Amino acid sequence: MKKIRYIMLAVVATVCCTACEDFLDVNTSKDSATSVTVDQLLPTACFYASQINYDHAEYGVYLAQALTTGEKSQTGVYAYSAGWEFLSMNRHPQWRRHFYDLGANINEMYAAAEEINSRNFILIGRTIMLLSTMLTTDVFGDMPRSNAYTTTSPTYDSQASIYDWMFQEADELIALYEDKSWTENADNIPISQKMDRIYAGDLKKWELYTKALRARLWLRKLPNWENTPAVCSHIVQLVDEVLDDPNWEEPLYHYDGGTSEQNCPWGPYAPTINSWESRANRLATSIPTKFFGYALLGGYERKTTNRRYALDPRAEKMMTPRESSTGSGSDAMRWLESNIGMDASMKITYYPDLFASEGNNPYTSNIGYIALMTDEELLFIKAEAQYWGGDKAAAYETTKQAVLRSMERYGIRESDLSGTALTRYERFFEVRLPGATTFSISDLMQQKFVAMYLQPELWTDVRRYNYSSKTNGILYDGVPVYTVTTCHDGSSTGYKVENFTVEYSLRRPYNLYEPYWCQADAYGINAELSPNAWVNRLNYDPETEDKYNRAELERLGAYKNHEWLKKRMIWAYNTSGKAVCSDPTEWK
To answer: Rounded to an integer, what distance in angstroms lies between the CA atom of residue 485 and that of residue 498?
Structure first.
């Protein structure tokens, strides 16, 4: 990563973002020197904070196997929705977004803010970089940090050292947010909504978001890394500190709609940010997987009179069912096995409209928003800590509260439901969350999977639990986390809980790239059963790192090495002993 490239891209990113988002009108004399000021750089930082969240979620929704496409190729330019052949992809936007669009611009903002002693810009910039660093290391692992901008050939910090830095940075930041010499500094320039579309410069809200990030950071200790009662108690305390504060407000980046980047990246316009370096959403040609649409959402084999399309009332809010194969109207949600390919007799219009044009999906509208954190995520963080801390009854209640908040996001409110709708609502809880006595970590994480749809945490959660299912035999607290045992037959003649006995597990996609994924691994274990045969990380951006930092990649063993993709993150190793597997060699 050449330093000059950072500087050039920083200038380009600032100009593009300011123009496209119409944040500020800047008029300068052609005879005057041009400099970038803090009030120009902060809108850029907030904009790209939203974009990096989208970048990670766009990959993750396929890698966690919530969505697939109608294709069945082993290779392609979108390896994350094909056969996991990542080494031939020419770029990953997450890498460039962190180091160039965010890192370079925020470094410029630091310098400009220090020059005028406006410390509020520094606080917000450091919070955004904490978010970006967490997202980036959680998909790449080791990466440059300590000397990323001080040399033309930065070394890669270990992921362990990056986590040490993030824990320290979160604590330091919160202390600074509580330091009036920073927050009430006389030289702080007022920050308007035009500069900061997330919190309009409200440092108390930014402080609470930083605390929320700290809670997400501590969650990485669970279930494998440091799963102790003390850690669990600390996580619960961190979440309560955020949610109990009346100043807490979800960090949402709203889009106005219009042209190009003015539209939400998940909307039908499907903007490509900065053209060549990004990837537009593929919702127009994507399909819910059988695991997500059938097993988790409980999509019926055919539409029923009283229960409509699925057990989960959020289903048709997330995605709108469309025409049937006979053209006489939709009779089912429809789904597809991951990467198995669409039958020749089917068309994409036979599958749900993922933009939910008739639903109430707040993410998939051109004037939608990107959520940097949601209430339900915080509640699920708390529930998971309560569960592993031994208080399953409290975990059950918090999980139910999180599900209700998720439903509310999609326009489903308990107080608004009556008649058959209320019956449907009640049936959902009877099947999915019947009570504390039978509540398991599987119930919790399956509901979080639904709530984290189109969020980066979706794939991170699946990897934290090592794709646990009956497919690979990995169990947490004695259960396969991503095996659903309460599917249904979709009967239109009535509803009986005892009929919900069908079982379906998360499994690897069909048509994986055989040289990488369909052969026994280095330990001689069958690839289908080994956790090492699942993708756990992305390769480093080939467009920059393969060309300019090859020596570091070779030192790590990551240069053009598909085995690197199988290497787990530090938080996925079973160091707490909370997972069991029929074959102990799988934890090597």
So the answer is: 12
Element (H, E) at 403: helix 392-409
Q: How far apart are the first and last CA of the chain?
A: 33
Alpha helices in 179-325 (DSSP H): 180-183, 203-219, 229-243, 315-318
Digit-coded pLDDT (tens) for 435-449: 999 999 999 999 999
Cα–Cα distance between 511 and 506 in angstroms, integer? 15
Compute the mean pLDDT over every residue in the chain, rounded to the nearest whole number: 87
Q: Give phi and psi for 540, each to the nearest 5.
A: -65, 150
Q: Where are the alpha helices (DSSP H) in 220-364?
A: 229-243, 315-318
Q: DSSP string covering 43-71, please?
A: HHHHHHHHHHHHHHHHHHHHHTTSEEES-
Residue with tokens 């202390």: 175
Q: In this structure, are strands 504-505 and 474-476 parallel, antiparallel, or unpaired?
A: unpaired
Strand partners, 299: 310
Helix (H) / strand (E) containing 172: helix 159-177
> What pLDDT, on a 0 to 100 scale, did the predictor assign at position 300?
82
State residue 176 phi and psi, 5-degree precision: -70, -35
Query: Considering the entire predicted model, what is its pTM?
Result: 0.92
| Per-residue pLDDT tens over the stretch 259-279 | 889 999 999 999 998 877 889
Any bridge partners for residue 370, and if so which? 253
Cα 455 from Cα 55, distance rounded (Å): 10
C-alpha to C-alpha distance for 106 and 124, rounded to whole angstroms: 10
Q: What is the pLDDT of residues 142-155, one digit of tens each?
A: 999 999 998 878 99
Does 329 score more than 50 pLDDT? yes
Mark residue 263 as left, alpha or beta (left: phi above 0; alpha: psi -120 to 50; beta: remaining).
Answer: beta
C-beta of residue 264 within 8 angstroms of C-beta of residue 280: no
pLDDT tens readout for residues 26-62: 333 343 335 789 999 999 999 999 999 999 999 999 9
DSSP for 500-524 reads ----EE--PPSS--HHHHSS--TT-
Strand (E) or helix (H) holding 303:
strand 299-304
Query: What is the phi/psi pair of residue 299, to 5°?
Result: -60, 130
Bridge partners of residue 320, in order along the sequence: 353
